[in-house]
Amino acid sequence: MRQRLLRSIRQINPTLIDDSLILLEFTVTSDQAGQRLDVFLTENWERSESRSNVQRAIKAGEVTVNGAVPTRVSMKISEGQNVQVSNNENAESPSIISSNIPLDVAYEDDDIAVINKPVGMTVHPAAGHTDDTLANAAVHRWPQIIGIGEPDRPGIVHRLDKDTSGLMIIALSQRAYDQLKEMIFKREITRIYSALVHGIPKSVKGVVDAPIGRSPHSRKRQAISEDGLPSRTHYRVDYELGDFAFLEIQLETGRMHQIRVHMDAIGHPIIGDQTYGRRKNLPNLNRQFLHSSKLEFAHPITGKQLSVKSELPEDLMRALETLN
């Protein structure tokens, strides 16, 4: 990947090339201020270079902003900042362990797969989870995805929280990965969730439009914030169960914990959510009642329209039966 990026850079400004020093250097103008770092570099690097490759370069430590390595590809840049791209060929890429963990595959072809993630499974390796994640299972089932996407989460184009179950897309080819990431950025993938919430919303249908950012009080929480990223969540009340409502929720954007933060913000937190809007849980439910139940999108390679559905898992069905 780095060699391909180097070729792209040489086509732009060969005078900057020094394999041990700076390859590219930009100064952010007033018109560019406020852009995401990955978007800024994609637009200024080379038109044919994919955004996912730019993101990988940022995460590999090959990009600095005013001399500092950014912690997020989505950081907002400011006027006058100096952005540099350097060669980091000696950087060690994190490896991922292949683990023989069964996966529930709802759809599969040569380029993509859609899986049903079980509750309790972490999507990619993190502290305390090095060999028991969805990523570990995916590289065992599809070894060809090594090198596709980010090193520690190959093939994964979007995520679900550990205690959220349901459908996720995995790219099995680089071409599919790049196209899927672009489709998510352009909001061309319909993601629908099933949720049970406390209380009955006043309106049968509604939209929560509130920016989300990192909570200033806890690094593990998100919060509504004026400085956050634009976030929109659509909901519809399917039916009522006493003091609870069963909702169909559609994401327009895909921020971390978006549904959970937005539903709590309007006074209807997800049942079982121990992080946002903590309230009494159902006696036989040990996680948040949130399930990715439907994905609709055009196949990234063939263009064929796909609609994949997932029924509620047993633990959520039992919770509904208790209320009924």
Structural overview:
The strands form four sheets. Strands 4, 5, 8, 9, 10, 13, 14, 15 and 16 form a nine-stranded mixed beta sheet that branches. By secondary structure, the chain is α+β, with helices and mostly antiparallel strands. The chain is 21% helix and 27% strand.
Descriptive tags:
Pseudouridine synthase; 16 strands; Structural Genomics Hypothetical 15.5 Kd Protein In mrcA-pckA Intergenic Region, Chain A; alpha+beta; 9-stranded mixed β-sheet; 324 residues; disordered N terminus; 3-stranded antiparallel β-sheet
Topology:
Layout: H1 2-12, E1 22-27, H2 37-45, H3 51-59, E2 63-65, E3 82-86, E4 104-108, E5 112-117, H4 134-141, E6 149-150, E7 153-154, E8 165-171, H5 174-185, E9 190-198, E10 205-209, E11 212-214, E12 222-224, E13 232-241, E14 244-251, H6 258-265, E15 290-298, E16 305-309, H7 314-323
Parallel strand pairs: 8-15
Antiparallel strand pairs: 1-3, 2-3, 4-5, 5-8, 6-7, 9-14, 9-15, 10-13, 11-12, 13-14, 15-16
Function: Responsible for synthesis of pseudouridine from uracil.
Protein name: Pseudouridine synthase
Active site: 161
Report the mean per-residue pLDDT as an integer: 85
How is the quaternary structure best described? single chain
String of helices and strands: HEHHEEEEHEEEHEEEEEEHEEH
Helix content: 10-25%
State the CATH topology of the largest domain: Pseudouridine synthase
Structural class: alpha+beta
The end-to-end distance, rounded to whole angstroms, is 55 Å
Named CATH architecture of the largest domain? 2-Layer Sandwich
Write down the overall geometry: globular
CATH C-level name of the largest domain? Alpha Beta
CATH superfamily of the largest domain: Pseudouridine synthase
Total number of helices: 7
- Biggest β-sheet strands, sense, barrel: 9 strands, mixed
Cα-atom Rg, whole angstroms? 21 Å
Estimated share of beta-strand residues: 25-35%
The total beta strand count reads 16
Count of the separate structural domains: 3
Q: Uncertain runs with pLDDT below 50, 5 residues or more?
A: 1-20, 89-93
